[in-house]
Amino acid sequence: MHSASEQSEAADQPTPPARPEPPDHSYPDHWEADVVLRDGGTARVRPITADDADRLVSFYEQVSDESKYYRFFAPYPRLSAKDVHRFTHHDFVDRVGLAATVGGEFIATVRYDRIDDRGLPASGAADEAEVAFLVQDAHQGRGVASALLEHIAAVARERGIRRFAAEVLPANNKMIKVFTDAGYTQKRSFEDGSVRLHLDLEPTDRSLAVQRAREQRAEAHSVQRLLTPRSVAVVGAGRTPGGVGRTVLRNLLGTGFTGRVYAVNAALTGTTDGPASLDGVPAHPSVGAIGEPVDLAIVAVPAERVPEVVADCGEHGVRGLVVLSAGYAESGPDGRERQRALVRQARSYGMRIIGPNAFGIINTAADVRLDASLAPQMPAAGRIGLFTQSGAIGIALLAGLHRRGAGLSSFISAGNRADVSGNDFLQYGYDDPGTDVVLLYLESIGNPRKFTRLARRTAAVKPVVVVKGARHSGSAPPGHRVPVTRIPHATVSALLRQAGVIRVDTVTELVDAGLLLAAQPLPAGPRVTILGNSESLGLLTYDACLTEGLRPLRPLDLTTGAVPADFRDALAAALADEASDAVVVTAIPWVGEDGAPEFGDGEVLAVALREAVASAPVPAKPVVVVHVEMGGLAEALAVATSTRPTAPGRRTGTERAPRPAGTPPGRAAAPDRDPRGDRDQGGTGTPAATVTPTATGPLPEAPAPEAPAPDGPAAVPAIPAYPAAERAVRALAEAVRYGQWRRQAAEPGRVPEYDDIDEAGAAALVERLLGGAEADARGVTLDTRQAGELLARYGIAVRPALPAPTPDAAVAAAARLGYPVALKTTAPHLRHRPDLGGVRLDLATEGQLRTAYAELTEVLGRAAELQPVVQAMAPRGVDTVVRAAIDPAVGAVLSFGLAGAASELLGDVAHRLVPATDRDVAEQVRSLRTAPLLFGWRGAAPVDTPALEEVLLRVSRLVDAHPEVVAVSLEPVVVAPHGLSVLGATVRLAPPAPRTDLGPRSLPSY
């Protein structure tokens, strides 16, 4: 494909017409970006400069004749000197070229030339450009052209170009597809034997959806190829046992990694008989000396030696790195710069990094069995994917899950998280058919808007459970450049919950929730049956349910004389009871005839409970067990078993647990269905395999549950057991809330349209008030009249308040507004503080007004300090506060609470992300602890909550449509039984910060 100006040049081995030298524009380094390609590799996108002449010639020599023909519509074997000059000299305004590079060499180029309406070169006001691509044949099919189109389109918009034109040969189907699949509004025509395409560069919902879908596939694939290597090299494996590298090598071999393993140590040299060996695997002095492809390198050398290792890996085709080496950002400023250089170097070769200062990675899939970590044992195979930023927390979580009999599908401990992050793991977890639950321990969220978007999408098909460290210190892990939020930790938690994230406070709660969600179906509601052989334990469970907002039924006491058969019958009845959504079984040890507790009957009770679950009707309900010193019970319940006798075959603990019946192996569930079945409809949970690891080395074999026959009974999933009622109920409550969110997410709310909103008028007003191009970066706070005018464009009326600098002015204002009136101060230290006496209400006569004025000035100070105003009385109601603000970490946030010191003191404020839907604001209003005051508490008249919800939606629309509106405060908003009154409003405008989540795909920059 080519531009029209190039077509005539191509006919006779081109010599471009002479053009004036481009004006001297500074190099736009903000256009540089690292991108993840379709196959999971990375490339560097950057502007082409005059220094790239040799790279361009070398690149062009490696392009096939066919690709050259598609580019220039004629045989074009080589570039002339004038071609090279033209394609490397740009003004970065009317003529721009970008290159995708790997290892410093070009793999693809794209350029645009601004044209006028006749297709001739233009500048200035012309808003159209011709665009042309060329991709090296070896890199076609990797999504390079699609990524370049996103970036060149963003550059063009920045330079005032609104449309692209492209001419493509009909046979060039790949390039036509790049344009047609991009999602932009486009026109297509056939002229003079070529396809003419016109693309409107304004982002659309479809183009954004396409971009995000490509981002998801690319980032998921980048993590997948780190976790599923065919060959691994451990760089830094010592010659003597012990040490980080040798430990990883031992773990790789001990757990039966299915691929090839190599040891690399610069001090090792081979003999005439071949390479040296360590632990029975070939050992080489460098990656390059291996002489065979290496997919993954585990780097365990001192930090000062890492750059040469990265270069060795990059030059020999290694696809990814796990850097265990320390001495980076955690060690201070020098280490921080060393870490940035590491990321830049690795990405220049198209490699992604886990680490540095990482603990390692694990994949328990039977066809991989990868343990490239420092963990003391390989975890059992299961359905939980685990990501941590801390090695110490990773060890604790692995140990906790192992003790509770839970298995993992994958594990990444990212250390300093310089490259691969929790967002990447979410992308992978969403796609991975072997993962049913995603657990994350995070100490920072580098891109909160993206994290929220990914979490919402993933939570729609599988649970996402998050525990966040550094909640109150406001600090981030060393070397992490993350936005600092101005909103409280509780607010961040509420916003994550809005996105479907199960937010817990401790790693213990993370394990508790993960166990239940991985093994049990989601409850259909909050009704809980409690049964057991201890009345006291049942009452503790009942109280815990009430505390967590569940609806427990009266506990069923089986008495201390109950035997396992009694438990079985009671559980079977509870599972069949349509008045119950979940069951909590409580158990204490039996007491023998001699009065001594019998601790050995846990296994017998486990069998009885399993029999009850196996006979339960469908849809199934979650079952959890609370036990006190029941020997063997938790272990026996943790094993997923078939309802038929175990087959004589055996399997190792590193094999992944079987898929639920009916799910094809190796295939992900449909996006709108949970991989474990219709869990929100009470579907069957998936089994979780459990084995008992030894202290070191590979796991022993354990009996394998036989997969059920097509028409036979399904496998009984593991039943989670907890040593305390509060922990079991808290995990169950999280499952109930998540199930409710899932059901609501299936039918999301809507953002209403209002006919009286004047969006264009508001935009023009904002531009005028902000000052246009000369806007002060610090922003401006609008005065009362300006704020009222802007809000009126969105249908929000603010009751006028007239200044009253003197008693006579107050009387005149009251006469204009009509009695009764309110007199109130607007001084900053008294504003919205009725408790300080700065407000006088229901002043019905001139005499009352003058008296109130005199009292205010006598008690609180001179009128010039108080800045009093007079306002017509509003109908009586409940005083509330509506706010919206742009937070640098999470974006636009809509907040609501009742007015008054009590609400502020208790932090009783509800928050939702913008844009809010009708369902969001309805839940927001009802989520306050003080919400009963709005709904007729103690016999009061209920207020007009639909009118209140409409104001919240209008404020959300205002902030969402105009990012320059960085803060809105409506205080108070008096909600009456019929209608409401906005008595005060403050609006602040500022130039909007760049939206990193709406630009072209790119990795965080260093």
How would you portray this structure in words?
- This protein is α/β, with parallel strands linked by helices and 1006 residues long.
- The chain is built from 28 helices and 43 strands.
- The strands form eight sheets. An eight-stranded mixed beta sheet has the order 1-2-3-4-5-6-8-7, sandwiched between helices. It has a seven-stranded mixed beta sheet with strand order 11-12-10-9-13-14-15, with helices on both faces.
- α12 (422-431) packs parallel to α13.
- The two termini are 34 Å apart.
Summarize the structure.
The protein has 1006 residues and is of the alpha/beta class. The protein is built from 28 helices and 43 strands.
Summary keywords:
disordered N terminus; 43 strands; 32% helix; 1006 residues; single chain
Q: How many DSSP helices?
A: 28
Label the structural class: alpha/beta
Main sheet overview: 8 strands, mixed
Instruction: Kindly state the number of beta strands.
Output: 43
Q: How much strand?
A: 15-25%
- In whole angstroms, the N-to-C terminal distance is 34 Å
**Rg:** 33 Å
Residues in helices, as a percent range:
25-40%
Mean pLDDT: 84
Instruction: Walk across the major sheet and give the strand order.
Output: 1-2-3-4-5-6-8-7
Shape: flat
Low-confidence region ranges: 3-24, 642-713
